[in-house]
Design brief:
With 242 residues, the protein is α+β, with helices and mostly antiparallel strands. Helix content is 48%, strand content 14%. It folds into two domains: 80 residues, Winged helix-like DNA-binding domain superfamily/Winged helix DNA-binding domain (Arc Repressor Mutant, subunit A, Orthogonal Bundle); 121 residues, Muramoyl-pentapeptide Carboxypeptidase, domain 2 (2-Layer Sandwich), CATH 3.30.1380. The protein is built from ten helices and six strands. It has a four-stranded antiparallel sheet, covered by helices on one side. The two termini are 35 Å apart. About 9% of the residues have low confidence.
Length: 242
């Protein structure tokens, strides 16, 4: 995330840091944000109210039997352009040029092959880990890619919650990429996952119950020698749509 871009849009002070904190994990209370940033409660509260009035934050209120409701903040669609976006104008332009040069299906085929490559990379990285370790490690990897992901556990149920989608522009232009990405994560983890795109911009990948052992996957010759399981190059998602 470019701090100059945030400062230019939001002004100085703690506002950029608050937006970054909510990008990493949201929704969150003022107390939680202040604790992470080591700032005063009143200062963070005032900045959150200002950011809400400017349209960058939205609040949810959870009622309690006694006392005031719990207020949690999360980023709005207006704040999303301030976050990392790998689907830049350049990438869109390249895909458009590919269609002009090689036909209407060229862009989708390129994206399809990209996610195959990503799936193989994830699978090789996660191969020697236990199922739970794989989920946590994948969340870490997704964070480094700009998704600001974290892992949540509720009993035996695990979720990967992503607070930002750096491929949002690509998703708008090519909706099938959503299924490519979901299948990439499912194949690399070794079991089925359920995807939910929330209205506040977050994406939740749910894993109903983690198996004790990974699902069987085919192993290529080089991976067999190294002991790593690898996602087969073809077919990974079936065939790309034309």
């Amino acid at each position: 995330m470019k701090k100059q871009q945030l400062t230019r849009a939001l002004g100085g002070g703690s506002r950029p840091a608050i937006v970054e904190a909510l990008a990493r994990n949201a929704p969150r209370t003022v107390k939680e944000i202040a604790s992470e940033l080591k700032l005063s409660y009143s200062g963070v509260k005032n900045q959150c109210l200002e950011l809400e009035s400017l349209g960058y934050l939205r609040a949810t209120r959870q009622r309690r039997d006694r006392g005031r409701p719990i207020v949690r903040y999360y980023l709005t669609a207006k704040a999303r352009p301030l976050l990392p976006d790998r689907s830049s104008i350049l990438l869109i332009s390249i895909l458009e040029q590919a269609m002009k040069l090689y036909g209407e299906g060229a862009a989708k085929k390129l994206l399809f092959k990209h996610f195959q490559t990503v799936a193989n990379y994830y699978a090789d990285t996660l191969a020697l880990l236990s199922p739970r370790q794989r989920v946590r490690r994948l969340a870490e990897m997704r964070t480094t890619e700009g998704h600001f992901a974290h892992c949540e556990q509720d009993g035996e149920t695990f979720r990967i919650v992503e607070n930002h989608n750096p491929l949002a522009r690509i998703f708008e232009e090519y909706p099938e990429v959503r299924s490519y990405e979901t299948e990439t994560m499912a194949r690399s983890l070794g079991f089925d996952i359920k995807r939910e795109d929330l209205s506040d911009g977050r994406t939740v990948f749910s894993l109903p119950e983690l198996p004790i052992e990974p699902l069987e996957s085919k192993t290529d010759k080089s991976s067999a020698r190294s002991g790593k399981k690898r996602v087969k190059d073809l077919p990974l998602f079936g065939k790309p749509t034309a």
